[in-house]
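Example for tutorial group B:
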Protein backbone atom coordinates (compact mmCIF):
# COMPACT_ATOMS: atom_id res chain seq x y z
CA UNK A 1 0.00 0.00 0.00
CA UNK A 2 1.58 3.28 -1.16
CA UNK A 3 -1.00 5.73 0.12
CA UNK A 4 -0.09 9.16 1.42
CA UNK A 5 -0.95 8.12 4.98
CA UNK A 6 1.31 5.06 4.87
CA UNK A 7 4.22 7.10 3.54
CA UNK A 8 3.72 9.93 6.04
CA UNK A 9 3.58 7.56 9.02
CA UNK A 10 7.17 6.54 8.16
CA UNK A 11 8.33 10.12 8.74
CA UNK A 12 9.22 10.25 12.42
CA UNK A 13 12.11 11.35 14.63
CA UNK A 14 14.31 8.66 13.09
CA UNK A 15 14.11 10.36 9.67
CA UNK A 16 15.51 13.55 11.17
CA UNK A 17 18.06 11.54 13.17
CA UNK A 18 19.26 9.65 10.09
CA UNK A 19 19.55 12.84 8.06
CA UNK A 20 21.45 14.82 10.70
CA UNK A 21 23.64 11.86 11.65
CA UNK A 22 24.77 11.21 8.08
CA UNK A 23 25.18 14.95 7.45
CA UNK A 24 27.56 15.14 10.41
CA UNK A 25 29.23 11.96 9.14
CA UNK A 26 29.78 13.70 5.80
CA UNK A 27 31.36 16.70 7.50
CA UNK A 28 33.61 14.50 9.65
CA UNK A 29 34.60 11.72 7.22
CA UNK A 30 34.54 13.76 3.98
CA UNK A 31 34.80 10.74 1.70
CA UNK A 32 31.78 9.92 -0.46
CA UNK A 33 32.75 6.32 -1.24
CA UNK A 34 33.21 5.29 2.38
CA UNK A 35 30.04 7.05 3.52
CA UNK A 36 27.84 5.48 0.83
CA UNK A 37 29.40 2.05 1.34
CA UNK A 38 28.87 2.28 5.09
CA UNK A 39 25.25 3.37 4.91
CA UNK A 40 24.33 0.70 2.34
CA UNK A 41 26.13 -1.92 4.44
CA UNK A 42 24.16 -0.76 7.47
CA UNK A 43 20.88 -1.21 5.59
CA UNK A 44 21.96 -4.75 4.67
CA UNK A 45 22.69 -5.40 8.35
CA UNK A 46 19.19 -4.12 9.19
CA UNK A 47 17.69 -6.56 6.68
CA UNK A 48 19.67 -9.46 8.13
CA UNK A 49 18.88 -8.64 11.76
CA UNK A 50 15.20 -7.69 11.35
CA UNK A 51 14.19 -11.20 12.45
CA UNK A 52 15.37 -10.64 16.01
CA UNK A 53 15.31 -6.81 16.17
CA UNK A 54 11.71 -5.87 15.30
CA UNK A 55 12.49 -2.16 14.83
CA UNK A 56 14.57 -3.06 11.76
CA UNK A 57 11.63 -4.74 9.99
CA UNK A 58 10.78 -2.23 7.26
CA UNK A 59 9.24 -2.53 3.84
CA UNK A 60 11.58 -2.41 0.85
CA UNK A 61 10.72 1.14 -0.21
CA UNK A 62 11.32 2.40 3.31
CA UNK A 63 14.84 0.96 3.31
CA UNK A 64 15.76 1.79 -0.28
CA UNK A 65 14.01 5.07 -0.99
CA UNK A 66 13.53 6.67 2.40
CA UNK A 67 16.64 5.43 4.22
CA UNK A 68 19.32 5.04 1.54
CA UNK A 69 18.45 7.83 -0.87
CA UNK A 70 16.48 10.44 1.05
CA UNK A 71 17.58 10.41 4.70
CA UNK A 72 21.09 9.00 4.51
CA UNK A 73 21.98 9.97 0.95
CA UNK A 74 20.83 13.57 1.15
CA UNK A 75 22.44 13.86 4.59
CA UNK A 76 25.76 12.61 3.22
CA UNK A 77 25.67 14.90 0.19
CA UNK A 78 24.64 17.95 2.25
CA UNK A 79 27.43 17.18 4.74
CA UNK A 80 29.96 17.05 1.89
CA UNK A 81 28.60 20.33 0.48
CA UNK A 82 28.90 21.99 3.89
CA UNK A 83 32.45 20.63 4.31
CA UNK A 84 33.40 22.04 0.89
CA UNK A 85 31.73 25.37 1.71
CA UNK A 86 33.67 25.60 4.99
CA UNK A 87 36.89 24.86 3.12
CA UNK A 88 37.56 21.49 4.71
CA UNK A 89 39.99 19.31 2.78
CA UNK A 90 38.50 16.12 1.37
CA UNK A 91 40.25 13.11 2.85
CA UNK A 92 41.32 10.35 0.50
CA UNK A 93 40.63 7.27 2.55
CA UNK A 94 40.31 4.96 -0.45
CA UNK A 95 43.96 4.93 -1.48
CA UNK A 96 43.49 1.52 -3.10
CA UNK A 97 41.63 3.12 -6.04
CA UNK A 98 44.57 5.37 -6.90
CA UNK A 99 47.02 2.51 -7.50
CA UNK A 100 47.52 1.63 -11.17
CA UNK A 101 46.88 -2.12 -11.49
CA UNK A 102 46.01 -5.32 -9.63
CA UNK A 103 49.63 -6.49 -9.29
CA UNK A 104 50.68 -3.16 -7.74
CA UNK A 105 47.65 -3.18 -5.42
CA UNK A 106 48.36 -6.73 -4.28
CA UNK A 107 52.04 -6.02 -3.61
CA UNK A 108 51.28 -2.77 -1.75
CA UNK A 109 48.54 -4.45 0.27
CA UNK A 110 50.96 -7.19 1.28
CA UNK A 111 53.54 -4.57 2.25
CA UNK A 112 55.96 -5.28 -0.59
CA UNK A 113 57.48 -2.36 -2.42
CA UNK A 114 56.31 -2.42 -6.04
CA UNK A 115 59.20 -0.22 -7.16
CA UNK A 116 61.74 -3.03 -6.83
CA UNK A 117 61.40 -6.63 -7.99
CA UNK A 118 59.96 -9.10 -5.51
CA UNK A 119 62.10 -11.96 -6.78
CA UNK A 120 65.62 -11.64 -8.18
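The residue assignment follows.
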Amino acid sequence: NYSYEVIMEKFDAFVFGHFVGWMLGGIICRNREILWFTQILWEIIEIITCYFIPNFAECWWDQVILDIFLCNGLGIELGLIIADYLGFVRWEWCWLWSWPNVKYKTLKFLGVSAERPVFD
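The longest helix spans residues 60-85. Compare this with the pattern of hydrophobic and polar residues in the output above.
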